[in-house]
Design brief:
This protein is mostly helical and about 190 residues long. It contains 11 helices and 4 strands, in the order αααααββααααββαα. Strands 1-4 form a two-stranded parallel sheet. A two-stranded parallel sheet has the order 2-3. The model has no long low-confidence stretch (mean pLDDT about 90).
Length: about 190
């Protein structure tokens, strides 16, 4: 795949369709400035700072922007908190509305018709497909992103992380846990 991408890049550059500097800037943006690592910082800050958590849950867009994560597809953010009784999951049933500034590029499955339809009609099955099993009595709410509103799930902080710094906690936050199709990693899931 990498060879094919490089070959395509070479051809497009030789024909003058693509400026290599513009491509480098675009790649740097999605590797460094935009992506799930931004969302992980938001979540970890909410887990360690009660005032920020409260602000994030009441004014998600402003709280996220305060950390410098702003831009197209992230203007109107609503943050949904998972609790021991409630699990939130996000989908865009019409297309692929997705909060790029905090989650980066959407995964291919997020845009797929099976995910978009089944997330609404059978969320427990979708979660099972992602190897997530929730207690039978736990409520699952599915939120439909739109061009006007994007959602970010604030997952529950894993047990056994008392005293951890925000930087340590960031390593536990996954993209899927911020969409609701996954859970954060547990301390034992990461190498020390």
């Amino acid at each position: 795949m990498q060879l094919r991408v490089r070959a395509l890049e070479s051809i497009l550059t030789e024909k003058g369709y693509v400026d290599p500097k513009a491509l480098d800037l675009l790649i740097e943006t999605y590797e460094v400035k935009v992506g799930p690592h931004n969302g992980a910082r938001v979540v970890a800050k909410a887990w360690t700072d009660p005032e920020y958590r409260k602000w994030l849950l009441t004014e998600g867009g402003a709280a996220i922007a305060s950390l410098g994560y702003i831009g197209r597809q992230g203007e109107n953010m609503v943050v949904l908190e998972n609790t021991p009784k409630l699990h939130n999951m996000v989908v865009c049933t019409l297309c692929s509305c997705y909060p790029w500034p905090v989650l980066g590029l959407p995964p291919v499955w997020y845009k797929s018709a099976p995910y978009r339809s089944q997330a609404v009609s059978n969320p427990r099955k979708v979660l099972a497909d992602f190897q997530v099993t929730l207690p039978e009595g736990m409520e699952i709410r599915v939120w439909d992103s739109t061009a006007e509103i994007r959602y970010l799930v604030l997952p529950m902080r894993p047990a056994g992380t008392d005293g951890w710094s925000a930087e340590q906690l960031e390593r536990l936050v996954t993209r899927d846990s911020m969409i609701g199709t996954g859970l954060p990693l547990r301390p034992q899931d990461i190498a020390s």
